[in-house]
Amino acid sequence: MLSCVSYCHNKNIVHRDLKPENVMLEASKEFDQIKIIDFGTALVFDPSKQLREQIGTPYYIAPEVLKKRYGKECDIWSAGVIVFILLSGIPPFNGVTDAEIMASIRKGKFSFSNKVWNSVSAEAKDFITQLLTLDVAKRPTAEQALQH
To answer: 17, 32, 126, 135: which one is catalytic?
Structure first.
């Protein structure tokens, strides 16, 4: 998935709605061909300018998108949420309503306290922590995340 995101970012394309429903596996023996779909909210961006349209899906939306000042890093945050959910079965930022979910995302606080995390490696937890870094300047690029 990060390889796809890296390719897009290198072409100055930001997806803005990464979520499990938009990640497809191509049927092959290995199921190793991953495709990102639904580029309806994607756009070509100018790296020197910030995007201002609040767009995305609750649970996966990055906090900077909620502030309406963001760039391609929002896709990295969404990838972190996806990995968190894949490894635990629960979202890192939760709430009963969309407003509660968004409030949780704005805080950017998540934990590995659920017992399901006992069997997850320290490396995986570190990977998620890096992707879900609240400070956009400290969040890794897709290329950097691929090297983790």
So the answer is: 17
Whether residue 67 contacts residue 36, with contact meaning beta carbons closer than 8 Å, is answered with: no
Residue 93 is given by DSSP the state S
**Catalytic residue flag (residue 17):** yes
Partners of 70 in beta bridges: 51
Under 8 Å between Cβ of 42 and 15: yes
Q: Which of 86, 17, 91 is nearest to 54 (CA)?
A: 17
User: Per residue of the chain (148 residues), what is the pLDDT tens digit?
Assistant: 999 999 999 999 999 999 999 999 887 766 678 899 999 999 999 999 999 999 999 999 999 999 999 999 999 999 999 999 999 999 999 999 999 999 999 999 999 999 999 999 999 999 999 999 999 999 999 999 999 9
As a whole number of angstroms, the distance between CA 76 and CA 95 comes to 22
CATH of region 2-141:
1.10.510.10
DSSP 94-134: --SSHHHHHHHHHHT-----SGGGGGS-HHHHHHHHHHT-S
Tokens in use for 107?
């805080």
